[in-house]
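step 4 of 6: structure.
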Amino acid sequence: MRYDIAIIGTGPAGVSAALTAKNRNKNFLLIGSRSGSEKIRKTHMVLNYPGLPDVSGEALNQAFLDQLQDAGIGITDKRVANVYAMDGYFTLQVDRDFIEASTVILTTGTSFGRPLPGENENLGRGVSYCATCDAPLYKGKETVVVGYSPKEEAEAAFLSETCSKVTYIPMYKGKVRLPESVEVISGRPVSVEKADGKMRLNLAPFAGAEGEERHIDASCIFLLRESVAPDKLVPGLQLDGNHVKTDRSMATNLPGLFAAGDLTGLPYQISKAAGEGNIAAISAAQYLDKRK
Amino acid sequence: MRYDIAIIGTGPAGVSAALTAKNRNKNFLLIGSRSGSEKIRKTHMVLNYPGLPDVSGEALNQAFLDQLQDAGIGITDKRVANVYAMDGYFTLQVDRDFIEASTVILTTGTSFGRPLPGENENLGRGVSYCATCDAPLYKGKETVVVGYSPKEEAEAAFLSETCSKVTYIPMYKGKVRLPESVEVISGRPVSVEKADGKMRLNLAPFAGAEGEERHIDASCIFLLRESVAPDKLVPGLQLDGNHVKTDRSMATNLPGLFAAGDLTGLPYQISKAAGEGNIAAISAAQYLDKRK
């Protein structure tokens, strides 16, 4: 089965795109975090979202999620590792499955950070963004997981079932809950390199913390950020600086692939993201209708 | 006094721009109908506005108006007849007053209709869009008012105090309430022309109605639509077809003048309009900050 539209991301742009896709009777899949937008949830108050005065970020995020539920729109809470532009459709690697969609709307925000030195060069060759996808490749080997949110602990635990050793480096504060076999260490990743036929992750102490520079060698380094940089997620996607380049219909350089929300550029605002999600869904629907 | 921003229009784009301008501590004026967007009010249900599920158009419009009131943002319910780009600021003719603003955000929608044949050529020379503005020019003369909403009856009544005769042509259904001296006739305006030194309005019967073609001659023909075509409102404003041409920051070809909402093009959607209003306000704020 091929979906009409795959919407990646569950922030305001993704929610808006999903609501409009539903209105247009499209067969679509909404993939992202079931808890919506981490960024909005952490916002104290939102004062300029039209229609919901003086709303807390948490309440606004919940209003979006409730509306999806009321509209009968489910969220597929999985990680999209890759989006490949095929001949007239797209193949998405979603955890370890592959799904097909005629169009894609990318709304993955900006929380992908800057790549570490050495990261891009070694991606797919000792650096991975998806433990679930690549675990089978590292059976009985040593791996390192850099987790940018507590959610990634499950990925590290999953790896510990097949790898000979897993080292976990949390990039957040608070308690880490992992099987005893997983070693947890503290440090700030500064670069990745190939050394002695293995991958090496170089670490520095956090600002203000005691400690020395050190490194860990392993067969694979998993860098698990909240989202993957759009040009890494979609090979061939054209950027404009750090943002995805779109026209006013939210079309990217890849026919059938649209983008909306913070990842298309400033301003990083909820209403702007929702508006763009709406436009992207209508543009995707028009693109589909033209091909009939 | 010169305003930082003049926002014209009180639909979702204007409301969104005003909320964000307020957030940015700008000194702004919001000009438009105190009852918000006629188009939204007439919409039965809105199913894809993120945050407000299955809301009636009337309730959504009211939510926008309530939010303005809660935020302490007043609406100046007057007609903007012209916006002139000056050297580094704008002069707006608002009814019979002139106000100045460093930037302008145009959110006047698409309800300006197509011009009648002969309308553009005679604008300002026997055709007018503003009775309040031009009444003094036609003291003791005969005038015709084509009113596109019951609101315009007040304009015709006002003209009847100074003109020797006023003929009123309602473009809507329902009871017309006017002073006895105003003649009310039914018909569909088809063109405007100069004839025998006067202006002539040619009328046809409405589709399906009895009657013959006729014409009325007068010194001035007032065409009072809900809004004025953007390039008539702002001389020099660049269009793209019937829409105002903007870039992704909602900037037009006139520095300091931004546009948002339906008048910038399809899709005609509430969330898209709100998003663009948000972007326009931020772009206007950045424009102002740069000039400091």
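step 5 of 6: annotate
 - Helices of chain A lie at 12-23, 38-41, 57-70, 119-122, 131-134, 153-160, 230-233, 270-291.
 - Chain A touches chain B through 38 residues (CB under 8 Å).
step 6 of 6: archive
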